[in-house]
Amino acid sequence: MNATPPRAADRDQIARFVDVLFRYAEDGSYVSLRAFYDDANQVFDIRAHRLTADRSSLIDDACNLVTRAAQSSRPVVFAPPIATLSNDRGATEADLHNGLCLSVECDSQPDVARQRLEHLLGPATVVVASGGDWPDPTTGELQPKVHLHWRLTEPTSDPASHAQLKRCRAMAKDLVGGDATSNPMVHPMRWPGSWHRKSSPRLCRIVTEAENELDLADAEQRLREAWDIFNASRPQSQGGQEEEPKKGEARDSRELVRAITTGSDYHAPIAALAMRYLKGGMTDAQVVLTLQGLMLAVPEAVRDVKDGVVHPLRWLSRYNDIPRAVSTARAEIEADKAKAASDDMFGSARIGGFRLDAMTAGAPPVQEFLLAPLMPLGKVGLIFGAGGIGKSLVALALCLLVAIRGRFGEVALGGFSILGGQVPLEAAGASVFLTLEDDTAEIHRRVAALDPQGQREDAPCFVIPAVDVLSLDPALVVPDGRAAKLTALATDGLDRLLCNIEQLSGREVRLLVLDPAGDFMNADENDATFVKVLMRHLRAVAARHGCTIILVGHVAKGIDVDNPTMRGSSAWIANSRFAYALWAPAPAEAERLAKQIQEPAEGLVCGKLVKANHAGAPIGIAKLFLRQKHTGHLVDVSNRTRQGAVDNQELLKLLVDACAESAAAAMPYSYSGVAGLWTHRADLPEALSSLTKRRLEELGTLALESGALVKARTTWSQGAPKYLDVPDGPLAKGVGEEMFQGSRAEAIAQYRARKAG
């Protein structure tokens, strides 16, 4: 005898269903793929699927779960909500993101119900035979139970439209006596292509399809007119009004009690009454006893009968499940309370966490850098300059440095120095370069020049040339009327890219480069509306992943070297946490500098940090770089411009004078540490601030060894003297002056004003 082939998902049915009803669902929202045991109120499996433009992955995941459910030894129903959710955790009405269709379960008089609703609303977009049958009590004919779905012309996406769709579903249900539990859009419903296994296994299938769609406002008007006529002769609850639907159940409590005691329905009435009794003030134990009493009132002859079919243990399984149903309702009530409290950002449950002392308890976190002291980790910033200046090569070199940091000594790519900054060990990790300008061949040529020793071998540096990936639409922001809208690549793609690279490489992603910035917008880069939306989203991505995001941009026309700006809206720089500008010096200036350092003028590039929000950033300190002929790497030659111009004695005098003035202004330097010369070099004269750490510390040592500077205490310091002052200065003499509370620039300005007065 031939064996029965194993039951499996019908992929064609599922694919057609997904295409029809999830056609307008927003990418980035979630579908809750759910399966439950039919013989008990237990979960078989629940999996959240995040939607992308490619629906095939949703179909794959659905088919996998349907097949597993179909082949389970116990009957399992596959019934995900035909809606999308805002997160991957919950599937309550509070989690609803998109309502997609008006759906009605027609388990009683299905033929009449369908005829009545299609006459009112037009052909259903899809009619699904759910696998069950309804026996006509007059003729004995078995009619397939059906689910009717009308796709909306536009999904619901806010509380008002969600409520409007729920009203429509409730009115449609009332007009045909449908299942009231299907009113909420998050109600689980069988999908075609899955198996109905309450009795003999039957495939749930599509009966008909149509291209008819519903405008929600028009549908509500039609349903309201029909429902008002229908409701005119319907018995009213006390007060003459229908009881407000509660937790997806529109029937009033008397109808729910009647449904239980007559044996016609157990599950939905028990869940709804449990919720209502608990909200009414009854204790959990009282609710359990009350519901068990209602179940005991069901005549034994009808306890296990549903629609004329005997289902063994139907009554007993629901009776035994009452304590769990009550505890679930209680948990939902508490969860709703907790969510309401957490959603209220300024509610009493959360506002205490914003008190300054609570926010700043303990030692402050140490500032970590991608490129010290220019670019912090986990922030969004800019590198911008004129075409051909070398900014993309700088970004590529930085990606490579991050990926190989810690694997070699300080010889790799110039000792991990770039733009005059250092890539520290804390920045070691994976890096991603997404370029919209260079193809694979150009990237190959550039990296071969940058890394002739092949140190990139096995390094987690990922470069994605969009021009060679034809299926990639790189837009992160697009117009939505007059507003800006983030694309699926922005809301989902970047997160998946970073997570997958982290998983593949086993390293945290420390750097993401987007080059060039303007090309990631299908909108006007001069319009602050679009720039702000993009930069705000990128800041959130950077914070989630702890990686720095650098956008590479072009310089504005007619560059002002004193105040260089990026092309496009001023919102680019305003919404970044750091911005570094590169430009070619003017011809006369280039010739002067070239003679001074004895290098070709055409290889010179100027640069400086023009914006930064972190402490100690060397904003405005100009650097001079020399582009290496064969590699394109920018080598910092700033110190060479000062050789001969400022000799050692002059530098020493500048340092001593700066320390003396700072001590007199009650804001002294220390040799090293938090108040150290290197840490606060931005406050020193330019000739000193541009020195290397080693060179600056050599000068400090020389000043101390020669006696030009001494170490002293302040009124606050304890332990050994460490603050720098001249021998006859106030700190050296032990004058107990209170230290200045503010910046060094403010302290010196006030000191000079007192001295002048």
UniProtKB/TrEMBL annotation:
Protein known as: AAA family ATPase
Organism: Neoroseomonas terrae
Coiled coil, from the record: none
Lineage: Bacteria, Pseudomonadati, Pseudomonadota, Alphaproteobacteria, Acetobacterales
Top-level taxon of the source organism: Bacteria
Gene3D superfamilies for this protein: P-loop containing nucleotide triphosphate hydrolases
Compositional bias of kind Basic and acidic residues: 243-253
Region of interest called Disordered, as start-end residue ranges on this chain: 232-253
Pfam families in the record: AAA_25
InterPro entries: P-loop_NTPase
